[in-house]
């Protein structure tokens, strides 16, 4: 149920998520179980958010790790040449 009669369920979910993210930005690590208990009426939506956020974070870590590996294991820029439309050689 919404905390206030004028708030929709989505508003309550958005406020709870905003508070959770603000705590993280302050350097805190909110206890997920406590967070869900404090917002039992919208816990299903918050569990979904936490699950999706965790998956996104893992994917971001994988992308960053892959980018760092590529940047340290390849030459950039590549030393292959090609021709432009006029037939002039250029570096790619």
What does this protein look like?
The protein is elongated. By secondary structure, the protein is mainly alpha-helical. It has a two-stranded antiparallel ribbon. Helices cover 60% and strands 7% of the residues. Strand 1 (81-83) and strand 2 (89-91) form a beta hairpin. It has one domain (9-91). It contains three helices and two strands, in the order αααββ.
Order of helices and strands: HHHEE
- Could you say how many structural domains there are in total? 1
Counting DSSP E segments of at least 2 residues, the number of strands comes to 2
Radius of gyration: 24 Å
Spatial order of the strands in the main sheet?
1-2
Q: How many strands, which pairing sense, and closed or not: the largest β-sheet? A: 2 strands, antiparallel
* Overall 3D form: elongated
Strand content: 5-15%
Helix content: 55-70%
Average pLDDT taken over every residue: 78
From the helix content, strand content and strand pairing, which structural class follows?
A: mainly alpha
Task: Give a topology summary.
Layout: H1 9-25, H2 32-38, H3 43-73, E1 81-83, E2 89-91
Antiparallel strand pairs: 1-2
């Amino acid at each position: 149920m919404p905390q206030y009669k004028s708030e929709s369920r989505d508003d309550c979910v958005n406020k709870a998520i905003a508070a959770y993210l603000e705590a993280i930005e302050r350097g805190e690590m909110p206890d997920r179980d406590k967070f869900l208990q404090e917002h039992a009426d919208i816990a299903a939506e918050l569990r979904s958010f936490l699950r999706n956020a965790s998956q996104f974070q893992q994917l971001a870590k994988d992308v960053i790790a892959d980018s760092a590996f590529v940047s340290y294991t390849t030459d950039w820029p590549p030393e292959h040449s090609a021709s432009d439309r006029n037939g002039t050689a250029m570096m790619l």
